[in-house]
Please model this.
Amino acid sequence: MNIDLKNILIYFIGSLTLISFISFRALRLSERKVSGIQIEIMNNQEFYLIDRFEIQELLNKGHSANVLGANFDQVDFKLLEMQVEENPFVAEIDVFINVTGVLEAKVSQAKPIGRLINSQGSDQYIDMTGKLLPMNADYTARVPLISLAKEGQWTNHLGENDFGKQLMEFLIFINKDDMWRAQIAQLTVNDDNELILWPQMTKQLILFGPADEIEKKFEKLKLFYKEVLPKKGWNTYSSVNLKYKNQIVCK
Model:
Protein backbone atom coordinates (compact mmCIF):
# COMPACT_ATOMS: atom_id res chain seq x y z
CA MET A 1 0.00 0.00 0.00
CA ASN A 2 1.23 3.50 -0.77
CA ILE A 3 2.87 4.96 2.37
CA ASP A 4 0.95 8.26 2.10
CA LEU A 5 -2.37 6.43 1.73
CA LYS A 6 -1.51 4.21 4.69
CA ASN A 7 -0.73 7.29 6.87
CA ILE A 8 -3.99 8.93 5.81
CA LEU A 9 -5.92 5.77 6.70
CA ILE A 10 -4.23 5.52 10.12
CA TYR A 11 -4.97 9.21 10.79
CA PHE A 12 -8.61 8.74 9.70
CA ILE A 13 -9.15 5.70 11.92
CA GLY A 14 -7.45 7.42 14.85
CA SER A 15 -9.59 10.54 14.46
CA LEU A 16 -12.74 8.43 14.23
CA THR A 17 -11.78 6.56 17.39
CA LEU A 18 -11.09 9.83 19.26
CA ILE A 19 -14.42 11.33 18.18
CA SER A 20 -16.24 8.17 19.26
CA PHE A 21 -14.47 8.26 22.65
CA ILE A 22 -15.32 11.93 23.20
CA SER A 23 -18.95 11.38 22.21
CA PHE A 24 -19.23 8.34 24.50
CA ARG A 25 -17.63 10.24 27.38
CA ALA A 26 -19.93 13.24 26.84
CA LEU A 27 -22.93 10.87 26.87
CA ARG A 28 -21.72 9.23 30.07
CA LEU A 29 -21.12 12.63 31.72
CA SER A 30 -24.59 13.83 30.74
CA GLU A 31 -26.04 10.81 32.54
CA ARG A 32 -23.99 11.29 35.74
CA LYS A 33 -25.41 13.37 38.59
CA VAL A 34 -23.89 15.55 41.30
CA SER A 35 -23.58 13.12 44.21
CA GLY A 36 -22.71 15.63 46.92
CA ILE A 37 -21.62 19.17 47.74
CA GLN A 38 -18.40 19.99 49.59
CA ILE A 39 -17.73 23.59 50.63
CA GLU A 40 -14.39 24.75 51.97
CA ILE A 41 -14.00 28.27 53.34
CA MET A 42 -10.28 28.87 53.05
CA ASN A 43 -9.51 31.50 55.71
CA ASN A 44 -12.19 31.04 58.35
CA GLN A 45 -9.62 30.73 61.17
CA GLU A 46 -8.93 34.49 61.05
CA PHE A 47 -12.54 35.71 60.77
CA TYR A 48 -16.02 34.37 60.18
CA LEU A 49 -17.98 36.52 57.74
CA ILE A 50 -19.71 33.70 55.82
CA ASP A 51 -20.62 30.09 56.51
CA ARG A 52 -21.24 26.93 54.47
CA PHE A 53 -25.02 27.22 54.68
CA GLU A 54 -24.98 30.65 53.03
CA ILE A 55 -22.72 29.37 50.25
CA GLN A 56 -24.93 26.33 49.63
CA GLU A 57 -28.02 28.53 49.41
CA LEU A 58 -26.28 30.73 46.83
CA LEU A 59 -25.16 27.67 44.84
CA ASN A 60 -28.74 26.43 44.70
CA LYS A 61 -29.93 29.90 43.74
CA GLY A 62 -27.48 29.86 40.81
CA HIS A 63 -29.06 26.67 39.47
CA SER A 64 -32.56 26.15 38.03
CA ALA A 65 -33.19 23.50 40.72
CA ASN A 66 -31.25 22.07 43.65
CA VAL A 67 -27.69 21.55 42.39
CA LEU A 68 -27.45 18.29 44.34
CA GLY A 69 -28.63 15.54 42.01
CA ALA A 70 -28.36 17.68 38.88
CA ASN A 71 -26.89 16.15 35.73
CA PHE A 72 -23.29 17.13 35.12
CA ASP A 73 -24.11 18.73 31.77
CA GLN A 74 -26.72 20.96 33.47
CA VAL A 75 -24.24 22.53 35.87
CA ASP A 76 -23.12 26.01 34.77
CA PHE A 77 -19.97 26.58 36.82
CA LYS A 78 -19.57 30.20 35.76
CA LEU A 79 -23.13 31.03 36.74
CA LEU A 80 -22.69 29.35 40.12
CA GLU A 81 -19.50 31.31 40.81
CA MET A 82 -21.13 34.60 39.77
CA GLN A 83 -24.07 33.88 42.05
CA VAL A 84 -21.86 33.21 45.08
CA GLU A 85 -19.71 36.28 44.35
CA GLU A 86 -22.80 38.44 44.83
CA ASN A 87 -22.14 38.00 48.54
CA PRO A 88 -19.89 40.99 49.38
CA PHE A 89 -17.86 38.91 51.84
CA VAL A 90 -16.74 36.45 49.14
CA ALA A 91 -13.39 37.46 47.63
CA GLU A 92 -12.96 34.49 45.30
CA ILE A 93 -14.60 31.13 44.54
CA ASP A 94 -13.68 28.12 42.46
CA VAL A 95 -16.39 25.56 41.65
CA PHE A 96 -15.72 22.17 40.04
CA ILE A 97 -16.82 18.53 40.10
CA ASN A 98 -14.25 16.04 41.36
CA VAL A 99 -13.69 12.49 40.11
CA THR A 100 -16.23 11.05 42.57
CA GLY A 101 -19.02 13.31 41.30
CA VAL A 102 -18.98 15.69 44.26
CA LEU A 103 -19.35 19.39 43.48
CA GLU A 104 -16.60 21.24 45.35
CA ALA A 105 -16.64 24.96 46.12
CA LYS A 106 -13.46 26.54 47.47
CA VAL A 107 -14.23 29.98 48.87
CA SER A 108 -11.89 32.77 50.01
CA GLN A 109 -13.42 35.41 52.28
CA ALA A 110 -12.80 39.11 51.95
CA LYS A 111 -10.37 40.23 54.66
CA PRO A 112 -11.37 43.35 56.66
CA ILE A 113 -8.46 45.58 57.68
CA GLY A 114 -10.35 48.66 58.89
CA ARG A 115 -13.79 49.87 59.90
CA LEU A 116 -15.13 53.25 58.76
CA ILE A 117 -17.28 54.99 61.36
CA ASN A 118 -20.19 56.73 59.63
CA SER A 119 -22.05 59.17 61.87
CA GLN A 120 -24.93 59.46 59.37
CA GLY A 121 -25.40 55.77 58.63
CA SER A 122 -24.06 52.25 58.95
CA ASP A 123 -20.38 51.62 59.46
CA GLN A 124 -18.42 49.88 56.69
CA TYR A 125 -15.46 47.53 56.59
CA ILE A 126 -12.48 48.10 54.31
CA ASP A 127 -10.97 44.92 52.87
CA MET A 128 -7.40 44.20 51.73
CA THR A 129 -8.17 45.44 48.21
CA GLY A 130 -9.66 48.75 49.42
CA LYS A 131 -13.24 47.65 48.73
CA LEU A 132 -15.95 48.91 51.10
CA LEU A 133 -18.04 46.14 52.67
CA PRO A 134 -21.24 46.27 54.74
CA MET A 135 -21.25 45.28 58.38
CA ASN A 136 -21.97 41.68 59.28
CA ALA A 137 -24.78 41.01 61.76
CA ASP A 138 -23.19 37.78 63.02
CA TYR A 139 -19.54 38.75 63.31
CA THR A 140 -17.49 41.79 64.33
CA ALA A 141 -13.94 41.96 62.98
CA ARG A 142 -11.26 43.27 65.34
CA VAL A 143 -9.78 45.95 63.11
CA PRO A 144 -8.84 49.63 63.61
CA LEU A 145 -11.76 52.04 63.85
CA ILE A 146 -11.47 54.99 61.46
CA SER A 147 -13.23 58.32 62.04
CA LEU A 148 -13.16 60.94 59.28
CA ALA A 149 -13.62 64.70 59.55
CA LYS A 150 -14.83 64.55 55.92
CA GLU A 151 -17.16 61.58 55.65
CA GLY A 152 -18.54 60.15 52.42
CA GLN A 153 -15.30 60.43 50.42
CA TRP A 154 -15.80 57.01 48.81
CA THR A 155 -18.73 55.16 47.31
CA ASN A 156 -17.37 51.65 46.77
CA HIS A 157 -13.59 51.71 47.00
CA LEU A 158 -10.77 53.67 48.65
CA GLY A 159 -9.02 53.87 45.29
CA GLU A 160 -11.52 56.52 44.18
CA ASN A 161 -9.17 59.30 45.34
CA ASP A 162 -5.49 59.78 46.19
CA PHE A 163 -5.98 59.98 49.93
CA GLY A 164 -7.96 56.75 49.87
CA LYS A 165 -5.06 55.01 48.14
CA GLN A 166 -2.65 56.29 50.83
CA LEU A 167 -4.99 55.21 53.61
CA MET A 168 -5.25 51.75 52.07
CA GLU A 169 -1.43 51.45 52.02
CA PHE A 170 -1.35 52.53 55.67
CA LEU A 171 -3.94 49.92 56.71
CA ILE A 172 -2.21 47.15 54.76
CA PHE A 173 1.11 48.05 56.42
CA ILE A 174 -0.18 47.81 59.98
CA ASN A 175 -2.21 44.69 59.18
CA LYS A 176 0.93 42.87 58.05
CA ASP A 177 2.90 43.81 61.18
CA ASP A 178 2.02 41.88 64.35
CA MET A 179 3.14 44.69 66.65
CA TRP A 180 1.21 47.50 64.98
CA ARG A 181 -1.84 45.35 64.31
CA ALA A 182 -2.09 44.75 68.06
CA GLN A 183 -1.19 48.32 69.06
CA ILE A 184 -3.22 50.60 66.73
CA ALA A 185 -6.84 50.46 67.91
CA GLN A 186 -8.28 53.58 66.32
CA LEU A 187 -7.36 56.46 64.06
CA THR A 188 -8.97 59.76 63.22
CA VAL A 189 -8.48 61.77 60.05
CA ASN A 190 -8.66 65.55 60.31
CA ASP A 191 -9.74 68.12 57.70
CA ASP A 192 -6.23 68.10 56.18
CA ASN A 193 -6.31 64.30 55.82
CA GLU A 194 -3.68 63.90 58.55
CA LEU A 195 -3.82 60.83 60.77
CA ILE A 196 -4.02 60.74 64.55
CA LEU A 197 -3.51 57.27 66.00
CA TRP A 198 -4.96 55.98 69.26
CA PRO A 199 -2.80 53.14 70.61
CA GLN A 200 -4.05 50.18 72.57
CA MET A 201 -1.34 49.85 75.25
CA THR A 202 0.04 53.35 75.86
CA LYS A 203 -1.60 56.72 76.56
CA GLN A 204 0.21 58.91 74.04
CA LEU A 205 -1.69 60.19 71.01
CA ILE A 206 0.39 59.57 67.89
CA LEU A 207 0.36 62.52 65.49
CA PHE A 208 1.22 60.63 62.34
CA GLY A 209 0.58 63.45 59.85
CA PRO A 210 -0.09 62.62 56.20
CA ALA A 211 -0.31 58.92 55.31
CA ASP A 212 3.09 58.97 53.64
CA GLU A 213 6.58 57.64 54.49
CA ILE A 214 4.71 55.00 56.46
CA GLU A 215 7.61 52.67 57.15
CA LYS A 216 9.97 55.47 58.22
CA LYS A 217 7.42 56.96 60.62
CA PHE A 218 6.72 53.61 62.24
CA GLU A 219 10.46 53.04 62.64
CA LYS A 220 10.62 56.34 64.56
CA LEU A 221 7.66 55.28 66.68
CA LYS A 222 9.30 51.94 67.44
CA LEU A 223 12.45 53.81 68.52
CA PHE A 224 10.29 56.00 70.79
CA TYR A 225 8.80 52.92 72.46
CA LYS A 226 12.13 51.13 72.86
CA GLU A 227 14.47 53.98 73.77
CA VAL A 228 12.48 56.91 75.14
CA LEU A 229 9.55 55.57 77.15
CA PRO A 230 11.55 53.06 79.25
CA LYS A 231 13.86 55.89 80.37
CA LYS A 232 11.38 58.77 80.70
CA GLY A 233 8.37 56.82 81.92
CA TRP A 234 5.41 55.34 80.06
CA ASN A 235 3.00 58.12 81.10
CA THR A 236 5.37 61.10 80.88
CA TYR A 237 4.15 62.29 77.47
CA SER A 238 0.62 62.85 76.22
CA SER A 239 1.54 62.94 72.53
CA VAL A 240 4.28 61.98 70.11
CA ASN A 241 4.58 63.79 66.78
CA LEU A 242 6.03 61.91 63.80
CA LYS A 243 5.30 64.51 61.13
CA TYR A 244 8.74 66.09 61.02
CA LYS A 245 11.58 64.55 59.07
CA ASN A 246 14.26 62.85 61.20
CA GLN A 247 12.58 64.07 64.38
CA ILE A 248 10.31 62.83 67.13
CA VAL A 249 8.55 65.64 69.00
CA CYS A 250 7.15 64.62 72.39
CA LYS A 251 4.89 66.65 74.65
Summary: The CA atoms of residues 89 and 110 lie 5 Å apart. The domain at 112-250 is CATH 3.40.50.11690 (Rossmann fold). The chain is about 35% helix and 25% strand.
